Amino acid sequence: MGMLKEFKEFAMKGNIVDLAVAVVIGGALGNIVTKFNESIISPLIAMIMGKGGLSELTVTAGSAVFPVGLFIQAVIDFILIAFVLFLVIKAMNSMKKKEEAAPAAPAPTPEDIQLLREIRDALKK
After folding, report:
1. Count of the separate structural domains present in the chain
2. Which domain CATH number covers 79?
3. Most exposed of 37, 62, 75, 95 (fewest Cβ within 10 Å)?
4. Using CA atoms, how far apart are residues 94 and 104, in angstroms rounded to an integer?
5. 33 touches 76 (CB < 8 A)
6. CA of 7: how far to CAs of 15, 20, 65, 75, in Å?
7. Regarding predicted confidence, which is higher, 121 or 2?
8. Can you tell me the distance from the alpha carbon of 75 to that of 107, in angstroms, rounded to the nearest whole number?
């Protein structure tokens, strides 16, 4: 029973849960960017090149056919994902800076200190 409890504590640590959420969101973001590339970027490139799309772009050397279009499409996916992550991290960092820049309100003076100050001021008169 001790091992099960220890595993539960390990699995429910904040860092592990945050990492799991990040992996799921990263996978979803990757899927979104891939579909964006396949449905918008690739047809635009195909329209410019006059071919069926990046996936059909090939280089032939002798009898070997190299599907370089698939590689180019993967590179474009990577660049788009990296750019989106850059924007997200930049936004998060700017929000953190705003939180840090806001000065904390001074703590209210304790009642006994306030009373001692009033007594001091009354004695000065």
Report:
1. 1
2. 1.10.1200.120
3. 62
4. 18
5. no
6. 14, 16, 51, 39
7. 121
8. 54
